[in-house]
Amino acid sequence: MSDQAPTPIRLAESDPAGVESAQTQAQLEEFDVDAPLVGIVMGSASDMESMEKAAGELQGRGIPHEINVMSAHREPDTVAQYAKSAKSRGLRVIIAGAGISAALPGAVAAHTDLPVIGVPLSGRLTAAGGLDAILSIVQMPPGVPVACVGLDNARNAAVLAAQILGA
Length: 167
What we know:
The chain is α/β, with parallel strands linked by helices. It contains six helices and five strands, in the order αβαβαβαβαβα. It has a domain at 38-149: Rossmann fold, CATH 3.40.50.
């Protein structure tokens, strides 16, 4: 193995002065290839066990992701800021899991134009075995779309996110 550093690849050899090549190379070096593409959010830390299935599926597919807990009711400003900044941070899809009133997926979708996938979650406080969460997610108003996967099926949300990404 050689001790010499590899020669950088020049992208635009037709630029005799190398100005465009240097600029392009500098921009590529700033690009974080490990930046998350999928954001996973949930309304409560008690949802982590269910939502980790999405993280596991994404990890198995080699898709970088991040996981956060934030409540649409207790921390609406945090949710809004997260959703508004998601695209500029490199996210391309958001998976939002919530139970009971399941407001989180809709609250996220209200503040971003990225695809949002809602995961209705069941729990001890949920009505009719999770029907309340399902209905909250599927009954979004026009112009604020949220995809909805099956009850407690965070893994399917990750599969759908991978399909949206073309991965």
